[in-house]
Amino acid sequence: DKEVRAIFLRLFAQLFQGYRSCLQLIRIHAEPVIHFHKAAFLGQRGLIENDFLTKVLNGMAFAGFVSERGPPFRTCDLFDELVAFEVERIKAEEGNPPKMIKHVRELAEQLFKNENPNPHIAFQKVPRPTEGSHLRVHILPFPRINEGRVQELLQEGLARSQGAPTATRGDKKCVVPAGPPVGTSI
């Protein structure tokens, strides 16, 4: 699973290399608007006639990508590092499958670590029911819910949450690296 994701991560890093140089931040609105200059991007790469890339850039998914990844100051991730620093490595590995596979495995390991930051914590497995357990008659019926008690608990929780500070995610924001200048090949 992670290796397939790593392959796609490499593909999109190559495909969108240099996209940050074609972003325009328009500040005439209350919230800044990010615009992607598609013609400049295709022109810099010499891919104006490429139907596939043009359709990708016209899609809603790419518009969402630009809105999420356009701000110059936000939390960076593995994709940002690939686009900024690893595109030359990816190009150099194109003719060397063992190096490419090694890099894919390294990326897959980083993806796994991102999703499982504490691998030493074991998850408790629910045991499989024994043969014939569904035939047992000693199963107690589910108890009735006390509606008054439920309302009390809800009111207590609301009272506590109004006095508590809002939870924020601990992501550290940084300046997004621009990466190397756009080349003329993918």
Automatic annotation (TrEMBL):
Q: Where is the UDENN domain?
A: 1-76
Q: What Gene Ontology molecular-function terms does this entry list? A: guanyl-nucleotide exchange factor activity
Q: Which residues form a coiled coil?
A: none
Protein's name according to its UniProt entry: MTMRD protein
For this protein's source organism, the top of the classification is: Eukaryota, Metazoa, Chordata, Craniata, Vertebrata
Residues annotated as region Disordered? Answer: 162-186
Which Gene Ontology terms describe the biological processes this protein takes part in? Answer: regulation of Rab protein signal transduction
Tell me the organism.
Pomatostomus ruficeps
One of the record's GO cellular component terms: cytoplasmic vesicle
